[in-house]
Amino acid sequence: ASHNVQSIGVPEGAKTFNTQMGATVTLSFDQEGAYFYKCTPHFMLGMLGMVQVGNAVNKAAIESNWSSIKNQVVMNQQRGTDLVKSLN
């Protein structure tokens, strides 16, 4: 009940997303690129993830975005860094 999924980086032209707390949802990723997301209330604890569809055509934008927000993560910051490094 205390989790959601909010986009923090999507390919140019793709829809951003921010689900309701505790909701079960299905998201479709129709555009090639990386979709970086967080659990809003637990972001500072490093609760985030990535979905890559095809090539990470927006890798540079994701790297830049992560660089600007990673200091907000106080635990498990390496998780975000590893996710960004894994993009291809």
Helices and strands, with pairings:
Elements: E1 6-9, E2 33-38, E3 48-53, H1 59-69, H2 77-85
Antiparallel strand pairs: 1-2, 2-3
Helix pairs in contact: 1-2
Protein structure class: alpha+beta
Low-confidence stretches: none
How many strand elements?
3
Q: Assess the beta-strand content as a share of residues.
A: 15-25%
Query: Looking across the biggest beta sheet, what order are the strands in?
Result: 1-2-3
- Please tell me the overall pLDDT: 97
What is the CA-based Rg, rounded? 12 Å
N-to-C SSE string, H for helix and E for strand: EEEHH
Question: Explain this structure to me?
Answer:
With 88 residues, this protein is of the alpha+beta class. The protein contains 2 helices and 3 strands. The protein has helices spanning 59-69, 77-85; strands at 6-9, 33-38, 48-53. A 3-stranded antiparallel beta sheet has the order 1-2-3. α1 runs antiparallel to α2 (77-85). It is globular and about 30 Å long. The N and C termini lie far apart (33 Å). The mean pLDDT is 97.
Descriptors:
single chain; alpha+beta; 23% helix
Q: What's the gist of this structure?
A:
The chain is built from two helices and three strands; from the N terminus they run βββαα.
